[in-house]
Amino acid sequence: MKPKIAFFDFASCEGCQLALLNCEDILLDLLELVDLVEFREAISETSAHYDIAFIEGSIHREEDSKRLLDIRSRSGYLVALGACACNGNVQARSNFISPAENYKLIYGEAARDRVQVDKNYWPLWAHTRVRSVEEIVKVDYYLRGCPMDATEFLTLVKALLTHQIPHFPENAVCVECKRNANECVFDKGMSCLGPIAYGGCDAVCVNNGHVCDACRGLLPYANVEAHNELMLSKGISKEAIKSRYRLFCSAEKMSQT
Amino acid sequence: MTTKKTIHIKIDHVTRLEGHGSILIDVDKGSVENLKLEIVEANRFFENLVKDLPPHDVPQIVSRICGICCVGHQLAAMKAVENALNLSISPQTRLLRVLLNESQFLQSHALHLYFLAIPDYVGVKSILPLASSHPELIKKALKLKKLANDFTTVLGGRALHPMMPTLIGWRKLPDKNKLQALLERLHESVKDIEEMVDFVSRLKWPDYERETEYVSLKHADEYALYEGKIYSSDTGQSVAESDYRQVTNEFTVAHSTAKWSRWNRESYMVGALARVNNNYEQLYPQAQEVANALDLKVPCYNPYKNNPAQMVEIVHCTYHCIETLQQLLAQDLQMEDLQYQAGEGIGSSAIEVPRGLLFHEYGFDKNGLCNHADAVIPTSQNINNIERDMKQFVPQMLPVMEKEALAAHMEMLLRAYDPCISCSVHMLDVRFV
C-alpha cells in the first residue's frame, strides 16, 4: 500500500503548498509513489491515519491547537512545513502586542467586543498567541524557510519513502553564500543574519541582491552575542539590529512557552 | 418540481478564500431562512505587525499576506510607501513592475482556470483525471503556468516572495538574455492559448444573473492594471486611490474574520469580470475577439463568467507582456540609486491583482518608522457580493435542482470568484436534513 501523505494548513499565506505545486514535474512523479490524502476530502478525519503529515502555518487559537494535537495522534511522521510552522515567522511579530490590542487595532474596539460575544461564532475570534508547531506537538522534521525549499521537500520525502534518515546539513547561510562567491553584504554596508541563520536555501536572497534576514531560523549553535558585536562593529545601530532580529522572529521572539 | 423543500447544507472549509471559508444554507419549506458564507480563517493581524518597520522592509513583510498574490501585495506596498515618502520611480522601474504584475496574472489565472474551475465544468473532481482524458490541454496549461512562474522568477529572483524588486527600483536587474528567452516563449505560447480558448469556448456556464456594482481601476491610456483611478459602474465616476476608504466602507460581521465592503449599493464585485466590464474597450483586439468567442458580452451580470473573463485577460496580458518586453529589451537596463530619505508621511495605493482591486496604506513617523497600515484585499471586498449572489440564486435554483446539484452550484459560484488554488477540491460534510 502506498504511504498516505496529508497536508494541513493553519495560519499562513499558503505559499509553501504553492511552492510545491510550482514543481509540476516532480508532483506527478511523487503522486505515483504516495497517496495524497487531501484534508478536505470526504474522509472522516477521526478514523484516518497519515504516514506523513505536513503542517503548514502557525497556531493561533485553541481550536487550532486541538486540531493539531488530533492530527499528531494519528500521524506517523509529522513535518513542520515552512517558516510559519517552524518558528512562527512574521506573524509571530503580533506576539509583541496583546491579543485584545491586536483586535482593537484591526477591527476597532466596538466591533471587537460585539463579535467576541456572538454565541455562534466566538471561537473564530478566540486568538490567543502565535505559536510554532513544536510549541504544541512533537515535530519529527523541519522544512524551513519562507517559502520552503522544494528541493529539501523532495529530499525529505525520498528519504522517508525509502526508510532512510533524511540529512539536512546544519551550516550557516554564510557558507552557501561564500560558495556562490557573492560580495559580502557587510562590505556593502548592510546588515546580514547569514552568519547565524540556518542554510539550505543556497543563500537565494543574497544571490539576488538582498540580505539574509534568517527566515529559516537560527542554527542551534548560533552565537547571537558575537553576531550582535559583529553588527555593531559594522556600524549598525542597536535599534536596527533589534529590528533585523525581530523581522522574521528568528533571533528574537516572544512565544507562549 | 416542488419548491417546498427543506434543506440544510453545510460545506466546511470549501475553499481557501485567502484561507478558510464555509457555506451554510438553511431552506425551510422552500424559503431561505439562513444563508451564510463563513470566513473562518485565523487572524494574523498583518496591519499591526508592520509597525515600527523601516519603509523598505514593509513590502517584503506584507508579501507574506498571501503566497498566491505575493507580487501584488509587494507592488501595492511599494506604491503606497513611495506615495507616503514622495518618492517617484523611473520609466524603467515602471516597465519592470508592469511586467512583474502581469506575470502574476498569467500564473494565477492559468492556475485558477485549469486547476480549479474547469474540472467542475468537465464534471471531474480535480485536474488529475483531465491529465489522462485531455493530456494535450493539461500539458499546455502546465506549460503556460511554468512560463509565468519562470517569468516572475527572472524578474523577481523567485516565484514566491521575490526579493529583487524594492522601493524605487530593483536590487539586482533581470538578466537580459533570460528576458529575451521569455519573449520567445511568450510568442510561442500564443498558439497554445488559442487552443485553450477553443476548449473553454465549449464549456457551459450556469445561466444565472444578478446585476451588481462593478469596481475596478480605470486609466486614460491603457487597460488599467498597475495604476489608475477607482471606477464604479454604478456612477460612471472615478475617485482617486487616496480616497479608497470612500469605496470600501469596511464593516465587521460575526461570521467572517475578513471584513466586508460596500460602496454605492449593498455590495460590489471586483476581479476579472469587473475589469472586463469596465474597461472592455481598452483590451487588445485579440482579447476582445476571445471575449466574443466565449460569448462574454459586456456588461455581463453572470458571476460564473468571471472564469471566461480570466481567459480574456490571459490573452490580453500575453500580448501586453510581449509589447512591454520588446520595449524594455530595446533599451539598456540601468542600475539605479536606491537611496531615499525616510521621514514622516502617509500614502495609499490601488493596484489590480488577479483577483481584483487591492488597496494598501502606510504611515511613517518622524523617524521614518511605520506607525500606520491598512490593507483591503480583493477577496474580502467580494465576500459580501458572493453571499448576496447566493441569496438570490438559491431560490431560483431550488425548484430545478436537487440538493447535491445546488450545493455544487454554490461551490462553483464561490470558486468562480477565484479563491486560492490549493483548497481546490471538494466538499466534506454536506448534510441534508
Give me the side-by-side strand order of the main sheet of chain A. 2-1-3-5-7
- Gap from first CA to last CA of chain B: 19 Å
Percent of residues in β-strands of chain A: 5-15%
Structure classification of chain A = alpha/beta
Taking the sheet with the most strands of chain B, its summary is: 4 strands, mixed
Uncertain residue ranges of chain B: 421-433
The secondary-structure element order of chain A is EHHEEEHEHHHEEHHHHH
The CATH class of chain B, by name, is Mainly Alpha
**CATH architecture call of the largest domain in chain A:** 3-Layer(aba) Sandwich
Give the total of domains of chain A.
2
Account of the protein in words:
The complex is a heterodimer of chains A (257) and B (433). Chain A has 257 residues and is of the alpha/beta class. Chain A has two domains: 4-91 and 123-161, Rossmann fold (3-Layer(aba) Sandwich), CATH 3.40.50.700; 173-247, no CATH class. In chain A, 37% of the residues lie in helices and 14% in strands. Chain A contains eleven helices and seven strands. Chain A has helices spanning 15-21, 24-33, 62-73, 83-87, 99-107, 109-116, 150-161, 173-179, 204-207, 224-233, 238-247, and strands at 4-9, 35-38, 50-56, 59-61, 75-81, 127-131, 141-143. A five-stranded parallel sheet of chain A has the order 2-1-3-5-7, with helices on both faces. In chain A, helix 5 crosses helix 6. Chain A is flat. The model of chain A is unreliable at 39-46 (pLDDT under 50). In chain B, helix 4 packs antiparallel against helix 6 (135-156), helix 5 (127-133) crosses helix 6 and helix 12 (378-397) packs antiparallel against helix 13 (403-416). Chain B is built from 13 helices and twelve strands. The longest helix of chain B is centred in the N-terminal third of the chain and has 32 residues, at 91-122. Chain B is an alpha+beta fold and 433 residues long. Chain B has one domain (49-385): Orthogonal Bundle (Cytochrome-c3 Hydrogenase, chain B), CATH 1.10.645. Chain B is globular, with a radius of gyration of 21 Å. The chains are: A alpha/beta (257), B alpha+beta (433).
